[in-house]
Amino acid sequence: MKQRAEKFLDEWIEKYDLIEVCSSRDQTKVERLARRLIADAEAEGISETDLTEAFNHDTRFSALADLLVPKA
Structure pTM? Predict the structure, then answer.
């Protein structure tokens, strides 16, 4: 499941140009995309836990994880 979540995350970040959105610091856009990311992942059968682990595994996106993934 971890590889599937990582692949999903990579593709999703590229599709929505997430790095650009997050660098703009537009909190409304970031929050909207965070909700969409979680909903899209769940629709693909990827849990929020798996998504969080995918973010944690790929250090390229650690800053994005801080913005997007809710803290437990």
Answer: 0.74
Sign of CA dihedral 39, 64, 11, 50: negative
Quickly count: other Cβ atoms within 10 Å of residue 20's Cβ.
9
Contact (Cβ atoms closer than 8 angstroms) between residue 54 and residue 2? yes
2-15 helix and 48-57 helix, angle to the nearest 10 degrees: 80
Q: At residue 49, what is the residue type?
A: T
> DSSP state, 69?
S
Q: Are 58 and 23 in contact (CB under 8 A)?
A: no
Q: What is the pLDDT of residues 24-54, one digit of tens each?
A: 777 788 788 888 888 999 999 999 888 888 8
Q: Give the separation between CA 43 and CA 26, rounded to whole angstroms.
A: 26
